[in-house]
From TrEMBL:
This is MULE transposase domain-containing protein. PANTHER family: POLYPROTEIN, PUTATIVE-RELATED, TRANSPOSASE, MUDR, PLANT, MULE TRANSPOSASE DOMAIN PROTEIN-RELATED. InterPro entries: MULE_transposase_dom. It comes from Lactuca saligna. The lineage of its organism: Eukaryota, Viridiplantae, Streptophyta, Embryophyta, Tracheophyta. Residues 1-77 form the MULE transposase domain.
Length: 138
């Protein structure tokens, strides 16, 4: 993902591969960074699923990139364990929170319903998937 002059995020590229692994992740990032003129990722945002191989390669290849996790992927995994409209609404409230107090309010409501849901989401590091933690220039 990239940011334009108005600080809006837009997609740059994606790839389809046979299997998600570190080799393909490195291949993809090497080609991407070559096309973008090299660099360490400063000024770019990558949004991905929680694939650990990609997370490791991103840290190695483009350490300055802003990395975010796809909330849709997190929710798809979340709802396998915690299904229901009430969980869905609270999850998306936490994702779309634009302030930390707003995020904490949504997460407190989740915790009251079921502490396991709260623990599950906190383990996925909200700084990567909730807008409340997206700081301009970080």
């Amino acid at each position: 993902m990239g940011r334009d002059a108005n600080n809006n995020i837009y997609p740059i590229t994606w790839a389809v591969v046979n299997v998600e692994n570190k080799v393909y992740c490195k291949w993809f990032l090497d080609i991407l960074m070559d096309d973008l003129g090299g660099g360490n990722g400063s000024g770019l945002t990558i949004i991905s699923d929680e694939h650990k191989g990609l997370l490791e390669v991103v840290k190695e290849r483009i350490p300055e990139v802003e990395h975010r996790q796809c909330a849709r992927h997190i929710y798809a995994n979340f709802k396998k364990k915690f299904d229901g409209e009430h969980y869905k609404k609270l999850f998306w409230a936490a994702v779309n929170s634009t302030t930390i107090p707003q995020f904490e309010e949504a997460m407190d409501a989740i915790k009251k319903l079921n502490p396991n849901t709260y623990d599950h989401l906190i383990e996925r590091e909200p700084k990567y998937w909730s807008k409340a933690f997206f700081v301009e220039g970080s």
